[in-house]
Design a protein that fits this description.
This protein is mainly beta. It has one helix spanning 126-136; strands spanning 20-29, 35-42, 48-54, 56-64, 67-78, 81-82, 88-97, 101-111, 118-123, 144-146, 150-151. The strands form two sheets. Strands 2, 3, 5, 6, 7 and 11 form a six-stranded antiparallel β-sheet that branches. Strands 1, 4, 8, 9 and 10 form a five-stranded mixed β-sheet that branches. The radius of gyration is 15 Å and the shape is globular.
Length: 152
């Protein structure tokens, strides 16, 4: 599994050649665990990334090579150990990484009580999120374009 830049840290942003910075937030509600993992897959299957997300609101900055991506599924991550495959949920949110750093939006994921379904929404909070991320990562590129995720 290929790795992108680590999320949730303020160390210098290392953008490998041919990659772009991608940033946004995830809000997770309705789960009894403290963390989940989002599986991100490039449409051609040539690149994968696992994004660990804490319950509540989590900002992220990672690097990905250009292409069309999908957040394919959410997996339960209990106490740092991944639970067997039956503890996953289909997400189906797409986005595109192009030639510039991209803000993907705030992905809201809410588990429907007593069901294996999720309610998915994407909010544009660019004016709040990008300045906050610049404070943590002053080396973000000067231009960050809006490239909001799209629910399927």
């Amino acid at each position: 599994m290929a790795a992108g830049c680590a999320a949730f840290r303020s160390a210098p942003l290392d953008v490998p050649p041919g990659h772009q910075a991608v940033l946004g937030e995830v809000i997770v509600r309705g789960f009894s665990v403290r963390s989940v993992v989002l599986d991100i897959v490039r449409e051609d299957g040539g690149y994968r990334h696992e994004l660990p997300v804490d319950a509540g609101r989590s900002q992220f900055v990672l690097t990905l090579p250009p292409g069309r991506y999908q957040i394919a599924r959410l997996r339960i991550n209990d106490s740092g150990r991944t639970v067997p495959d039956e503890a996953w949920f289909q997400v189906g949110v797409g986005f595109e990484v192009g030639g510039a750093a991209a803000y993907l939006g705030t992905l809201q994921i809410k588990r429907v009580a007593f069901a294996r379904q999720l309610r998915i929404a994407v909010q544009d909070e660019y004016d709040r999120t990008v300045p906050a991320m610049r404070a943590r990562h002053p080396d973000l590129p000067p231009v960050v374009v809006r490239a909001l995720m799209r629910p399927a």
